[in-house]
Amino acid sequence: MQSLIPYGRQDISEDDIQSVVEVLRSDWLTQGPWVPRFERALMSHCRAEYAVAVNSATSALHLGCLALGLGEGDTVWTSPITFVASANCALFCGASVDFVDIDAQTYNMSVDALERKLAEAERANKLPKVVVPVHFAGQSCDMRSIRTLADRYGFRVLEDASHALGGEYLNAPVGSCYFSDITVFSFHPVKIITSGEGGVAVTKHKDLAHRMSLLRSHGITREPSEMNSLPDGDWYYQQVALGFNYRMTDMQAALGASQMNRLKEFVSRRHELAGRYDNALSCLPVTIPYRHPDAYSALHLYPILIKSKGKKYSRKVVFDYLRSKGIGVNVHYIPVHLHPYYRARGFALGDFPQAENYYSNAISLPLFPSMDLVEQDRVVEALRTVLE
Ligand SMILES: *Cc1c(COP(=O)(O)O)cnc(C)c1O
To answer: How far is CA 61 from CA 149, 184, 333, in A?
Structure first.
């Protein structure tokens, strides 16, 4: 039996392990020096002025929505081809969610569909307060056009860049927030770098960063200037908002900071492997991922579409065959609007046809920095066998 090749996995070095062990031997397991160090590494990479590290990207999306003032009666729009957290963050705030169909080539939110939907929403007086573009598979959305629409229609932009750390858009790092208010990254083990669990929100806006850091830790402040009375003494703090415990630990931050040293290496290895897939699959009946010239993708995923029209196999046959050969393929994503929870909120099959069409043919092939070429050739051979 050959070993299982997962679709993604972390790459942990001895240096990474040492960093975490040092924290374990230190005085601080949480709220020590490592969280601000990791935040500084992220700010410097992204060229953004502020970073607020938290215990997951889901928490970062929630804090981002709250900082942007989202609440009851407001609406968030996102892509249906994403992880559920991109949409759930709106519901956490009591707001509602709607979706914008994807572009058939990039699988990102379609700017044409967004523009049409905004024009309709303006007539119905139902414009969104926040739009959450998701940089699917690590490739940036068309942020320049989204910014133009944001200025015209007055919505805020919260980038879900969970897949895209180390990616670039128009030669600037994803996370620079040049076209957005806040950008969120995830450090779950399958993502580009990991802190075990973890996430961050980066922004250029001091007030947004301040609000997010306040809400990250119970809405509690120790800053006398933020209190409504003089402090009773050195022990004093005040709760001034309803916050959460979304803090990242120092073990997590030390791991994340150590992983940042290899970010470039991780992404270029992903490009090397993706380039090999591109070549090997070019003569098979599949659609390989399109690379937009404006973006340098972080290549979190390598999703292919199976062209099964008139063939005796379907996506499911191909998927099951690859899994039977120990190849841990996956599907990213089940369109969010088709989950029972969202159907119960009024969404139905047929609402977002490009997303649904993508979903019915998509398979994510294994792609991670420590994947070796022999493993990759095994994936290609298995695909060739089932498709021929
Ligand atoms: C992984 C992911 C998230 C959630 O990240 P967590 O850190 O696991 O909370 C959100 N959005 C997208 C697009 C993701 O891929």
So the answer is: 21, 7, 18
